[in-house]
Amino acid sequence: MARDAAVAARRGVTRSEPLDQAVAFRFLRGLGKNNDRTWFHANREDWDGHIRHGFEDLITMLLLDAAAVDPRLRGVDPKACLFRLANDTRFRKDKSPYKPWLSAWLGPRGKSGAFSGYYVHLAPGKTHVSAGIYVPEKEPLHALRSVFLENGTAAREFDKLMRSKALAPYQPLTTDSLRVTPRGFPKEHPRRELIRARNYLVARDVRDAELKERGIFAVLREFIRATSPFVQWIDAHGFGARPEREEEEFDESSW
Question: Residue 202: which H helix or E strand, with range?
């Protein structure tokens, strides 16, 4: 155990920082430049020896901490939140076998299902975080649009959240709005852009230097705590009583 602790210390791993940024980013940079199975297998000691488990431990810590502010995350399996490093190349033009990033979706069923949650994307020079709902199913999307159509108390609660100081670093809201108003909704409305929305997401980019200075866990913990009221508003007004059926896992490669 003492030997393991010494190895962990040399790698920059601590109880509060289970993933060594330097080791992980060095590996991901190499993978980005040499995205093939030969390079991966020649350099997989870092992956199997630290990065894979370190990232899982990081997500475990985030889930345990986040459950205090978002009870939906209690009991969520950390492994269910992790996206695979390997690409599914069957239906892609890009046949690169691996993703040169680490990613996870923290939601009530992990990465399965189009539920509101928190997206973490770690990559050298390209780290970013997002929160909200991405490509929701027809029913919750209609429910959210209806809230903005009614323009009542719930919509004003949304406005208050969007004006909050905590959410400011993650603005503006990303909606990927339709060019036309969806069927069944008026073409003219003061919240037309929110009614036309296809997604409801807040996000921000994170510099490598910030991760190094503050620590990956601290940055991601702050992100989840700042955005959790927004995420839970989406959940409450989009889903209400959550459906029992399992949903398909979404593809995060375009994020």
Answer: strand 200-206
pLDDT score at 251? 57
For the beta carbon of residue 118, count every other beta carbon within 10 angstroms.
Answer: 24
Span 128-151, average pLDDT:
95
- CA atoms within 13 Å, Cβ hemisphere of 153: 0
Query: Which sign, positive or negative, has the C-alpha torsion 149, 152, 153, 155?
Result: positive
Q: For residue 60, how far is the Cα from the chain centroid?
A: 14
DSSP per position, 212-226:
HHH-HHHHHHHHHHH
| 3-class DSSP assignment, residue 228 | helix
Q: Which residues pair with 98 in a beta bridge?
A: 86
Report residue 89: phi and psi, to 5°.
-95, 5
Question: Which token pair is 206?
Answer: 């994170």
Please state the pTM of the whole predicted model. 0.89
In a 13 Å sphere around the CA of 65, the CA atoms on its Cβ side amount to: 17
DSSP 248: P
How is residue 105 annotated by DSSP? E
pLDDT in tens, 16-36: 799 999 999 999 999 999 999
